[in-house]
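Supplementary Methods. Inverse-folding protocol.

Structures were first reduced to a discrete structure-token string of length 659. This string, shown here, constituted the complete conditioning input.
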């Protein structure tokens, strides 16, 4: 919502636009956030002379107050769709084989259609459900009076109607109804029909997935037409059509999004939990189905890249991660399933696949075995309880994977770094992997946790790449989503976490800028990206906090030797000078004035230099006409020979922030 508001505000604030915009926004009542704030955003957008907005919602008070004051600007949809609903209801009933006979013996038969239109209030889904019930009655040879009574028993609101349908299911199917619908509501996306077919085996044996023998198949389509037909009939009997098969995609989804919303209410969640039976865990059932599916169709590591299988495998692991939150019994069963999958990979002796040997360099590809690819995917999934359990048993569990598991945890596989969601589980996984690496450095006497440093450099590189635009001096992030990814990592404390675990601020990727290595050091890239992206006030506060950690004096092992800022990083000081002179422009604004932001960063850097470093910077590194010179001279005036820069840095930081 925050990013959407920023985008709309940027459009609204343009004085002259080459185009006029009309936004159609459906379903305001379905927004899960603050409805009053949403109304304010829409109304603020409407103040632009270049923008018109058409919104729709249920007639809730908050929307009536915000948008319903002027009758001339309001449309009641049910007043406009009456004829369409009439024709639809007629076609649904007239097409039934028994309608003609019913109409012949009951002159008032058409009154049913009029009643349907009057009660529908413009909701086509309600008409579809009602006519389906009436068609079912005609199939059972209901008389006109029977159909009339049937219509009178049907609720006019969708929610109660759905509850009515579920209560009409045969009690024998209540448990299966509850479990199937719970699985559908727990699914982040519609699940394939095969998974529901495997779920049927769970009623006979909960450990069915463990007992299926793995095969070397490579066919992702297990479902023959008779099986699909059987699944469709079972869904009709156990969910009354609230779930249906999508013939195009082979998935099973809700009849309508309102069904999903209704089943997500607390009342229906309790209803389904009661019907499902004690101890049922929908994510665990999904993991079981996926385990059986992969054993039948093969794994994504077998024949090189396989987009469908790779995505399905990520889904399996995402549900395994959710199982962490469903109690120890659910976790233990999930652990057995994941262990079984890895054992199957080893048993099949799956062909090795290739992953980059190092990131972000263009080094030759490194071959890893199928089981290592599996563990790499586990790290990416951040199933933190499973990962912690494995590391406790074997600290080298992720040996042979990208950065010993950290590559997956920070989202470096397959370009996922900019899409990574920095959840609590991901943070816990990174912390656990870093702790193992720190323990290894103590055992082997290494100077730094190598894997931590490598993952740190790779993450910083992905988040902070800056390029010049077509117009000279116009800076922008290199990739779409980079600005958001950097801000979210800041807000989640990922940069703080790496620094706490020993990440080196002076770590760099020499191959990215081989002739200017200090331009690619972590501290320099962090400074540079801060100058060119938009950040909210809270994010900027976090940015400066991390910057202070990057520039803080450190022990020789993780040194951020500030003298090197003067001796080695002339290009970066030149960059800062150009920013001071506003030779560089940024595409995005920020709440703080850009010139002030540049000055604060510059003075934070200068505050880490001692008197001699500042003199070397003044007389050897920058030119007499350099825009940095006044700031360097001011820093020199506040410093005396031999004074430790650390003793004044805190005072300098406070002064920077209030300027």
């Amino acid at each position: 919502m925050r990013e959407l508001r920023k985008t709309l505000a940027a459009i609204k604030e343009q004085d002259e636009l080459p185009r006029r915009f009309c936004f159609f926004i459906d379903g305001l009542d379905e927004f899960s956030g603050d409805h009053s704030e949403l109304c304010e955003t829409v109304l603020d957008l409407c103040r632009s002379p270049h923008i018109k907005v058409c919104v729709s919602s249920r007639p809730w008070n908050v929307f009536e107050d915000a948008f319903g004051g002027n009758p001339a600007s309001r449309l009641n949809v049910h007043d406009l769709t009456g004829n369409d609903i009439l024709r639809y209801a007629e076609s649904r009933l007239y097409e039934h084989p028994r309608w003609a006979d019913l109409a012949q013996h009951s002159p008032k038969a058409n009154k049913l259609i009029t009643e349907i239109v009057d009660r529908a209030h413009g909701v086509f889904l309600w008409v579809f459900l009602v006519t389906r019930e009436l068609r079912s009655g005609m199939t059972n040879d209901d008389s006109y009076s029977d159909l009339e009574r049937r219509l009178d028993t049907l609720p006019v609101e969708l929610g109660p109607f759905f509850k009515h349908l579920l209560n009409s299911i045969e009690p024998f199917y209540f448990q299966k109804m509850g479990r199937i619908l719970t699985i559908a509501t727990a699914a982040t996306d519609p699940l394939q029909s095969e998974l529901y077919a495997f779920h049927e085996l769970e009623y006979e044996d909960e450990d069915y997935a463990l007992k299926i023998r793995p095969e070397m198949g490579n066919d992702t389509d297990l479902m023959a037409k008779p099986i699909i037909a059987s699944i469709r009939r079972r869904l009709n009997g156990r969910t009354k059509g609230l779930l249906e098969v999508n013939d195009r995609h082979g998935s099973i989804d809700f009849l309508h999004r309102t069904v999903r919303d209704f089943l997500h209410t607390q009342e229906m969640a309790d209803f389904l939990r009661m019907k499902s039976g004690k101890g049922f865990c929908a994510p665990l059932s999904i993991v079981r189905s996926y385990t059986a599916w992969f054993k039948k169709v093969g794994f994504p590591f077998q024949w090189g890249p396989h987009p469908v299988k790779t995505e399905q495998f990520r889904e399996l692991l995402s549900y395994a991660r959710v199982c962490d939150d469903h109690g120890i019994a659910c976790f233990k069963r999930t652990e057995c399933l994941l262990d079984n999958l890895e054992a199957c990979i080893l048993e099949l002796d799956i062909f090795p696949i290739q992953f980059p040997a190092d990131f972000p360099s263009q080094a030759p590809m490194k071959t890893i075995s199928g089981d290592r690819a599996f563990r790499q995917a586990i790290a990416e999934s951040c199933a933190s309880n499973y990962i912690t359990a494995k590391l406790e048993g074997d600290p080298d569990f992720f040996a042979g994977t990208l950065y010993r598991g950290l590559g997956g945890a920070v989202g470096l596989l397959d370009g996922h770094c900019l899409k990574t969601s920095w959840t609590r589980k991901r943070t816990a996984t990174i912390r656990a992997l870093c702790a193992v690496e720190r323990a290894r450095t103590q055992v082997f006497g290494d100077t730094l946790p190598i894997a931590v440093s490598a993952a740190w450099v790779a993450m910083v590189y992905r988040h902070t790449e800056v390029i010049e635009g077509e117009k000279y001096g116009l800076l922008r992030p290199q990739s779409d989503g980079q600005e958001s990814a950097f801000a979210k990592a800041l807000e989640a404390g990922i940069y703080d976490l790496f620094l706490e675990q020993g990440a080196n601020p002076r770590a760099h990727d020499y191959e990215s800028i081989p002739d200017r290595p200090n331009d690619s050091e972590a501290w320099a890239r962090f400074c540079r990206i801060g100058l060119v992206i938009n950040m909210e006030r809270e994010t900027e506060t976090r940015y400066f906090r991390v910057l202070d950690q990057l520039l803080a004096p450190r022990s020789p092992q993780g040194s951020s030797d500030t003298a090197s800022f003067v001796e080695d990083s002339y290009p970066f000081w030149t960059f800062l000078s150009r920013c001071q002179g506003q030779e560089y422009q940024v595409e995005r604004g920020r709440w703080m004035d850009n010139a002030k932001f540049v000055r604060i960063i510059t003075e934070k850097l200068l505050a880490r230099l001692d008197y001699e470093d500042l003199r070397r910077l003044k007389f050897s590194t920058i030119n007499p006409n350099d825009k940095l010179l006044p700031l360097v001279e001011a820093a020199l005036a506040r410093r005396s020979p031999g004074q430790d820069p650390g003793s004044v840095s805190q005072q300098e930081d406070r002064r920077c922030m209030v300027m």
